[in-house]
Amino acid sequence: xxxxxxxxxxxxxxxxxxxEAIAYRAAEQKADVVLAARRTGRLDxxxxxxxxxxxxxxxxxxxxxxxxxxxxxxxxxxxxxxxxIDVLVNNAGVMLLSFMAKDKVDEWEKMVDVNVKGxxxxxxxxxxxxxxxxxxxxxxxxxxxxxxxFASSSVYSATKYAVRALSMGLEKELSKTxxxxxxxxxxxxxxxxxxxxxxxxxxxRFKERAGExxxxxxxxxxxxVLYAVSQPPAxxxxxxxxxxxxx
Length: 247
Ligand code: NDP
Prior knowledge:
This protein is an alpha/beta fold. Helices cover 46% and strands 15% of the residues. It contains 7 helices and 7 strands, in the order E-H-E-H-E-H-E-H-E-H-E-H-H-E. Helix 4 links the parallel strand 4 (87-90) and strand 5 (136-141). Helix 1 packs parallel to helix 2 (40-54), helix 3 packs parallel to helix 4 (105-133) and helix 4 runs parallel beside helix 5 (154-173). The structure holds NADPH dihydro-nicotinamide-adenine-dinucleotide phosphate (NDP). NADPH dihydro-nicotinamide-adenine-dinucleotide phosphate is lined by residues 12-13, 15-19, 37-39, 63-66, 91-95, 114, 141, 143, 186, 188-189, 191-193. Residues 7-187 form the Ketoreductase domain.
């Protein structure tokens, strides 16, 4: 197995949940990490924890992934601080589940902006450097909702299907370069993701079902990411689906 040691790993949405776990676990395995999100207070705390507990370097870059120039600046700051970018984890995302008849068009737009345009801006900003380096790894966080559609997940699923389509196309396009592409599709993971839902019917269902479903931990997804990153350079892990076992 290739080591993560010495790699520069950029994680969007590193201020909580899965992104935070990926950044921390990458630093534990001796990567230098770049922490991107909007809530810099939380990123600063994670940076302090990473530096004191793992001894690795962590750079905080305030980034709204819906703003193309901010994502470009994220990659530029990474290169000027660490000289390269080895791994980009396009993890930032929002899941504003609702029934389409509720017509929450602002939330549809937000999901498209963060979940799809955010990933595109990440690819746009990082891929030229990776191609120039002849090496790199783009990891896109989709979802099982990018494999199946549920009654309230039409728009969220549409964004996550789009993420998978981008991963699948990129993987083929880049297969003769040194750039690897991994699509990660988590099932339900314990995190803040559902806290932003505003549809009362969906919130009611979530409350009713709370305790019924055993969720994964963010670390379980970080392990899947680290598995893909730590393969030998010629091994391209393209698709990982991780579901909780309902035992
Ligand atoms: P969290 O809500 O805990 O984390 C979401 C992260 O995305 C936060 O760090 C948030 O940071 C960031 N984010 C949101 N909007 C923006 C933005 N405009 N610019 C930059 N960052 C943004 O949820 P999870 O950790 O669970 O979600 C991470 C990813 O995993 C998402 O893509 C989600 O769709 C996916 N996923 C999650 C599952 C789950 O069950 N939890 C299942 C399947 C997939 P900030 O607000 O500070 O900007």
